[in-house]
């Protein structure tokens, strides 16, 4: 099941109190402290969202590893070990005979 990533919000538009004929945005200055505070809050929010997204991806990869382990690796190992034990038990049965106490080494 794919992870639905949150959509990125559009960048905030800063309205400047001074009039300018230029259509270019100005760089943030140290005079405009309000925009710096809002940008730090926005960066905290995006950092929290990024951490949540990373955590969600990690949990999804763990679920996928669990599925691979339970569907492929464990049954394959159990099949191999079961056959190995069956060959051992049959060879022991051919040597000793019926399933008596000596069969189990008692």
Mean pLDDT over the residues:
76
Number of helices: 1
Question: In angstroms, what separates the terminal alpha carbons?
Answer: 53 Å
Q: How much of the sequence is in beta strands?
A: under 5%
Which residues form runs of ≥5 with pLDDT under 50? Answer: none
Number of strands: 0
Can you summarize the main beta sheet?
Answer: none
**Sheet/helix structural class:** mainly alpha
Q: In percent, how helical is the residue content?
A: 55-70%
Order of helices and strands: H
Shape: rod-shaped
- Radius of gyration, in Å, reads 33 Å
GO cellular component, one term: mitochondrial outer membrane
Pfam families: Mim2
Region (Disordered): 1-50
Biased composition (Low complexity): 18-30
Task: Outline the structure in words.
- This protein has one helix and no strands.
- It is mainly alpha-helical.
- It has a domain at 41-106.
- The longest helix is centred in the middle third of the chain and has 64 residues, at 33-96.
- Pfam families: Mim2.
- Residues 31-48 have a biased composition (Acidic residues).
- InterPro entries: Mim2.
- One of its GO terms (cellular component) is mitochondrial outer membrane.
What order do the helices and strands come in, and which of them pair?
Elements: H1 33-96
Task: Summarize this entry quickly.
By secondary structure, this protein is mainly alpha-helical. It has one helix at 33-96. The mean pLDDT is 76.
